[in-house]
Input
Amino acid sequence: MNYLIGWGLILGALVASNVAIADTPFQVDGPLRSEVIVPIRKASFDQDGKCRTRRQGGNPREVAGYLVFDGSQDGNRQVDPQIAVGGGYILHGTNSGLIIYDKQGKFVNGVSQNCFNKGIDPKLFFDAHNGVFGFDLWNPWDQEKKKPVNISISETSDPRGAWNTYPVPAPGGRDGGGIGYSRKWIGYSFPGGPTQTFVMKLGEAKAGKPATVYHFKGNLGHPVLTQDAIDDLYFVKVNEREVSITRVYETANGTPAAETVSKRHGLKHMGYPRQSPQKGTEQLTASGDRNPKNLVLQGGFIWFSQAVTVDGRSAVQWHQMHLNGAFVQTGLISDPKRSFIQTTIAVNRQLDVLVGFQETGADMFISPRFAFRRSDDPLGTLQPTVSIGEGQAATNGVAWGDYSGSVVDGDNGLDLWTIQSVTDAGGKGDTVIAKVPFKGR
Output
């Protein structure tokens, strides 16, 4: 059954309204402070066997015509699943640890977060420009709250090899941050504290050198995963009325600066998603966040998806946007009897799109889904939803997710991958990973 609703018919009016609304003047800011961070180097992913092996997942199989395999199977309700793909491998992270698979879905190696200076809420990426993996871990157990963010970067495209971890001070910060990259920069934003965004140069981190970290006042927005081969790094904020886009660039003296422009978006659906029902219980579950959990810069456009309220239920909304905040297309996944939650988006170099999410309702348990579109499909539309598993029981708390992951294959820039949570027989959060192949054209 297909629950997809296209917005192609109203897209012209939406784009016209965006073009008619003037941008706010650019606001330019520099960092408030900086410091040099000396990395913690590991000679290999598992510290040459000194870290205890965490073996999870695998079991490759075909589901609905796609390669599917299991990720972590030992999560609770807040699994926080993520993946990054490149160098011939899939790097997978959750609140329980980090795992490497090959591209056939076979387990290669796995460790806990303790092996990477501790932390939770991993966000992962593969930077094809520099040929490295990266991720963050938020460490809430640092009693002085001086270095709760660990940014780890591999030295090569092989995640089994050497890594450098940078413990970055973020006084007053809280978990819930997001990571992004460009050819030049790594960016991280988080809630709490006076300086909620920092950037560092990716080249320094790849080389394992002491790296200068620059902190900006307030929060610049969620950092973007920059698949285009550019140096500038973008951050995005979305609220009920406006979208704000901040560009971080390198000045003549080598330090960063940030300029921001805001635009009225004119989107109809922007309410925070309501909690969602499950079969056999009155316990509602979290649906995700209106604030997008991942944004992609591909083909000169920013792409993102978000969970919003439509007719009293959580729905998934996705977008293609110009760098000045004007929308090119918007689509909606909605149904009067089902909720769609915990969404992320992936886009390849042909501008084919995958939207990953989960489906739930009063007659079903939380189940993993995705839908995709080819670049020449009608604007605002996706092809029919694909099921890659079915939930087996209800989760026993509001907390769920807290997000999912969808990414491009960094090796060919074409194939799209997604990881989604699914409730197991005990109502806990297992994960499933799927590959959606695309041919070049």
Q: What stands out?
A: The radius of gyration is 20 Å. The helical segments are 8-20, 202-206. Confidence is low (pLDDT under 50) at residues 1-22. The first helix runs from residue 8 to 20.
